[in-house]
Amino acid sequence: MPTCEECKNFFSWEDDPRKGDCVERAVDPRQAYYKAKPVNADQDSADCSSFQKK
Amino acid sequence: MGEPAITIQEHEKRQEWWWAAEKKRSDRLDYLRKAMWKKGAIGGLYPPGLYVDLERPVLQTEKARELESSPDPYVIKFAKILAHVLDTKTIFITDHSQLVGYLGSLPNTITWDPTLAAILNHEVMNDPSAIPEPEEESLKIITDVTDYWAGKSDLDKILPYMDLDDSMKVLSGAIGWGVPLSRGGYSGKDYEYIMTGARAFEDIIEELDRRIDEADEKAHEPGATKEISDLYDKMNMWEAMKITLEASIRYAKRYARLARIIAENYETDDKRKEELLQIAEVCERVPAKPPRTLQESLQYDLFIQLFSRNEAIEGAWPARPDYYHGSYYEKQVNVDKTLTKEEALDLIGEFLIRAAEVSQYKPKWTREGLQGIEGTWVWTLGGVKKDGSDACNGMTIAFLQASRLVRIANPTFAFRWHPRVSDEVMREVFECIRQGLGYPSMRNDPVLIANAMNWHGHPIEEARTWAHQACMSPAPCTKHGFQPMRMANATVNCAKIIEYVFTSGFDNVVNMQIGAETPDAATFTEYDQVFDAWVTQMKTVFSILVRPVNRARILAPKMTPRPFLSAVSERSVESGLDVCEPSISRGNAWITAFTWVENADSLAAIKKLVFDEKKYTMAEIKEALASDWEGYEEMRLDFVKNAPKWGNDDDYVDDVMLDCLHEAAAFSRELKCPSGNNWPILPENVSGNIHYANIVGALPNGRRLGDALYDGGISPGPGLDKKGPTAVLKSCSKIDHISDGRAFLLNQRLSPTQLAGEKGYQLWKTYMKTWADLGLDHVQFNCVSDETLKNAQRDPEKYQEVIVRVAGYSAHFVDISRKTQDNIIQRTVQGLG
After folding, report:
1. Rounded to two decimals, what is the model's pTM?
2. A27 contacts in B (CB within 8 Å)?
3. Nearest chain B Cα to A10, which residue?
4. C-alpha distances in angstroms, B785 versus B435, B634, B731, B791, B822?
């Protein structure tokens, strides 16, 4: 089972490595941006369409 | 070969201001302006591409479920829900941006707060235009969230404690709009506490800790007095405030972390890397610590506004940004020279864009009443300092210049004019008006300061700090003077007053008795009887709308608290009481009087045609109105054409207007807010004149059901002011703008051709001198030609960026309904000079 911490988009927190930010590039019809959402390092990412193995 | 490029000067000569702005602004501002998702509804519906953000309601609901079995008091649970949203929502940083933060999870989302009102949640469920795909999945989420908050939302909680009769009349939508909720209107801020650089969130947290420790020590002294018992409530409130402040600091640090991640892992451009690291530094600094630079100051302000909207729907954005950011601009641009004017304009332009993007899901009646915009973000510029000296500074000019570069319709500005404003600043103000922005609106500072002292007893130093609460109403930005809760249902559809005179208070549109059961108008034999009935109806309608607001304000501290707003308010940090607690507020209530002038024109028509000339009987008018003038066209035209109309310097009708205002003003001093202060009226309209067109029945000024109402405030009916701009000003000057009401909106249209060049400026300046000499408190201008507006109706795609002044706000012309567009075109274009 792949987990978030194995993903290229995962950036762990210095003060709590069990958690991190899932950072992704996004482009909508008007603008481009980077977005981030907190995730757990051991979160199952089997169904995540953005998962990229480190 | 293509056509030669058109120069900026050529665009300006052709009054193609949008194209000129596009060429004048920096590449960054151009990108950010075009990247912006406009959130204002068009025809009551959100534009394509936007959708309701389901992330936030899911987060709120999951946390609320988790806390159900917690022993925490409600205010702490509520604070924890707010903190959970800030800790876990998706955040983003747009390319080229220097300021960060948005309410929703993505740029094209509209946030939905399901904790406010079940009726709002049901609107979301039934709004197919805003539900995200896949619809079935979204509907499941919406249903779950809606079911959970049914019976638990603020409105559900307070309604059982309200007068049922009043509630039914308010919710009928006939006489007012909005619901009496402390988290459902908008709030001023104690800017004198939070925006002077003297403190920031860590300082407040330190003070809260100290107060909690002191209270805790005292609470364990022997003896269970009421004072000791109250300390427990205060400790809970202080704890809730602290939770929200700490979460806010963490939220800013999430942006700092993201900015660093982008800079260190993705960004290849060195300049952008530097900017991202700068963003990180800024977000590590504010809101935890006081700002040191203009960027930090703007970011700090933006965070405060977002946190306040994390807690409540805010339909307005009271602010005085040149005053509170001015010292940072001055230091960096003029003293230290660490920022160029152009760099400052980039930051300020982006600040306007970030504000324009803010969006919260609102009920359809609000979207119809505020066509084309998200809310009335009317920011206050200019004015005087607390000592009475001129407050204009470099930032005042920079805001005016930035607004012409980004040309957004919301926020807009209102300018506090006073006799010491420099010519340089006045020219910048004029340039915005000339370039068709419809703003700033002009406010007479000496008059409004005197007005604030007269109506609400604000001391002069506090009155001088005033900022617009929404379109029009001033309130100080001080500890006891700022307003924590404005509930829009103290907004009166005043045309109903004269309508009810003829129906003995029965509302034929919503089919219920709303007004007073005054005697049958057909039996009236003297004008005084008509006027007496009008006064009775006015008092009845005002009271129906004010009572629920007063009740909700009293219930708010316990039932619908605002821990974050309390945390940034000195009076609450000091007292441990919710910011809405009436005993710590001086009070600054007002009744917004929509559709007001119809009363004066109708009463004057009755007085002249029925009682002076005896051409008709009251029974005939009653019958004609009941028939919506059908079968009475000749008579209707007589009432339209041969009755005197407000705005022509005609004492006959102007005296009627004064009689109405004097009665309302006298009653305003009988109505009291929970702080014991007065409820003066404030005639203005937003686009309520269109919203109410199908709700107000036929009127004695010749209007039929469905016709647009007048555009509001004390503006004459469109096309009915036939004697020129000075006559309009003279009519308006018969009103005492200090003691007859809280403020009076006046719309005027000027010819863009006439305002061209230096001559145009001098003409406008002369007009403004007359306006000031006559003691009016407000005027705002539309300065777009009929030709442009008609072209925009024919070919909206080509005229996407034409902005007009609707009433207390501006909007893109193509975003407002056809009826409102027509109403603006019908307004008289005043020739100056």
Report:
1. 0.96
2. none
3. B261
4. 11, 33, 25, 10, 13
Check B36 against A13: CB less than 8 A apart.
no
CA–CA separation, B158 and B512 (whole Å): 23
Question: Whose structure tokens read 């339209």?
Answer: B640
Is-contact B695 B173, C-beta < 8 A?
Answer: yes
- Are B380 and B319 in contact, with CB atoms under 8 Å apart? yes
Average pLDDT over residues B65-76: 97
Cβ-contact B101, B122 below 8 angstroms: no
Q: Which of B544-553, B616-625, B823-832 has the lowest mean pLDDT?
A: B823-832
Nearest CA in chain A to B255: A36
Residue B482 to residue B580: CA distance in whole angstroms = 11
Whether the upstream peptide bond of residue B128 has omega within 30° of 0, thus cis, is no
Which helix (H) or strand (E) is B281 found in, with range? helix B270-285
Q: Hey, how many other C-beta atoms are within 10 angstroms of the C-beta on A27?
A: 9
Q: Find, among B560, B571, B563, the residue nearest to B241 by Cα.
A: B563
A29 to B94: CB separation less than 8 angstroms, yes or no: no
pLDDT band for B203, please (50, 70, 90 cuts).
Answer: very high
Tell me the pLDDT tens digit for each residue of B754-789: 888 999 999 999 999 999 999 999 999 988 888 888
d(CA B429, CA B440): 7
Report chain A's terminal Cα–Cα distance, integer Å.
Answer: 14
Token reading at A23: 């950072």
Going by the DSSP 8-state scheme, the letter that residue B334 receives in this structure is: I
**ipTM score:** 0.98
Look at residue A25 in the predicted model and tell me its pLDDT.
Answer: 97
- C-alpha distances in Å from residue B574, one per residue of B207, B212, B240, B567, B676: 9, 11, 14, 10, 22
Q: How confident is the model at residue B369 (pLDDT cuts 50, 70, 90)?
A: confident
Region B130-156: what's the mean pLDDT?
Answer: 95
Sign of the CA dihedral running B418, B420, B423, B428: negative
Pairing of strands B747-750, B778-782: parallel
Residue B683 is which amino acid? P
Once rounded to an integer, what is the mean pLDDT over residues B285-308? 98
- Kindly state the tokens that stand for B481: 């003077």
In chain A, which residues have their Cβ closer than 8 Å to the Cβ of B34? 30
pLDDT of residue B435: 93
Angle between helices B294-311 and B74-88 (to 10 degrees): 130
- Predicted pLDDT of residue B799: 83
On the question of pLDDT at B178 being above 80, the answer is no
Mean pLDDT of B127-154: 94
Shortest Cα distance, chain B CAs vs residue A38, angstroms = 6
Q: For residue B100, report the phi and psi dihedrals to the nearest 5 degrees.
A: -130, 160
Q: How many Å apart are CA B637 and CA B645, to the nearest integer?
A: 13
CB B261 within 8 A of CB B91: no
Q: Could you write out the DSSP letters of every residue in B678-705?
A: B--EEE--TTHHHHGGGTS---TTS--T
B79/B81 Cα distance (integer angstroms): 5
b/e sequence B352-372, b meaning 16+ C-beta within 10 Å: bbbbbbbbbbbbeebbbbbbb
Which residue from B minimizes the CA distance to A8? B265
Containing H/E element for B171?
A: helix B164-171
Is the pLDDT reported for residue B689 higher than 90?
no
The reported pLDDT for the residue numbered B488 is: 57
